[in-house]
Every structure is written in structure tokens, then in C-alpha cells.
Amino acid sequence: MSVQDKTAGKRRGQALTGALAGVAVIAVLVAVFVGIKMSDDDEKQSAAATAPAAGAPAQPAPSAPPAQAPVDPALQKKPVVEAGSGDVTKLVVKQLIAGKGPKLAAGQTIRAHYVGVTYADGKQFDSSWDRGEPAEFPVGVGQLIKGWDQGLVGVPVGSRVQLDIPADLAYGENATGGRPAGDLRFVVDVLAAQ
């Protein structure tokens, strides 16, 4: 191979490397442009979704923010829930920490942490704490066990309450589907409501 052939081969390699570098720079610039364009489109779509159309009737104001009370430091720690003693013949609501917020009304959606145990032996069967975040659900509208629907309405936001629930207001004496049978005890922290 002559010196000219080697020089020409070296130039072709350099030209190829330069071309690939140029293509890479263009690809990066296109990706940045597309990313910015998509971000702008998302913002425009978001603004369009929230803005009323021309001539459309005014939209109702957003719903009120959730009612919250100052959080007692004890509500930031999972409670220890022990077994009960004796028979549970009626729903018993015991306030463990008095909340300073408004009282819950039927139909409100609440955010709450809770621990549920079987009353007789204190064996835990459910806990929002173990899932790492509070649960949200409506109260007083028949979507929960009766003990919760009846026991939580009227409880102030910011409270920790203990609910001792007889079987007929829980899942029953012969519950199925992995639900606990018999009397239950829950400790519920009412964090917010709307």
C-alpha cells in the first residue's frame, strides 16, 4: 500500500468520524427541541383544559380545600393497639386524642391512618401505616363497615379515636374472603376531611 493510499484512507476515516459526530450533535439538538416543544404543548393543553371556552358559562369554583386541624405530634406515629376485654355489645367510640378541627359530617371524604385488630386477641389484620400512606374514603354513606360509618361521624378532624365494633357492625361472626370475623378494634387518626 502506498503512502498516498494510507493518507487517503486516514482522511476517509477522519471524514467518517466527523460526519458521525455531526449526526450525533444534530440528534441531540433535535431531541432537545422536541422535548421543549412537547413541554410547551403540555402547558398549552393544560391551560386550555382549565380555561373556559369562548361563550361558555362560567365554571363553578373548585371545591373547598380539605379541613385540617393542627396535627398532634402523636398522630405522626403508629399507635400500639391491644386486645380488648369482655364482650362488645354495642359500638364504643373512645377519644384518645381530641382534635381541634371541624366535626366530620356524613358524606365527607376523610383522609385517615388506622390500625385494625381482632378484639379478642389484638392480632392486627389491617393498617394504613404499613402501606406507608393514609387512606381516603367517604364516611356515613354506606361504603364502609357500619361501625366506621356510625362511629366516625361527629369526630373532630385531628382526633385519634378507638372504635370497639361488635361483629354485627363489622364483617359478621362468619366473615369470608380474608376478612376478620367477630368483634373488632380500630384506632383511627382523622387527618383531614372535605
Automatic annotation (TrEMBL):
Q: Where are the transmembrane segments?
A: 15-36
**In which domain of life is the source organism classified?**
Bacteria
The region called Disordered is annotated at: 44-71
Q: What class of enzyme is it?
A: isomerase
Instruction: Spell out the Low complexity composition-biased ranges.
Output: 47-58
Q: Does the keyword ATP-binding apply?
A: no
Annotated GO MF terms: peptidyl-prolyl cis-trans isomerase activity
Name of this protein: Peptidyl-prolyl cis-trans isomerase
Organism whose genome encodes this protein: Couchioplanes caeruleus
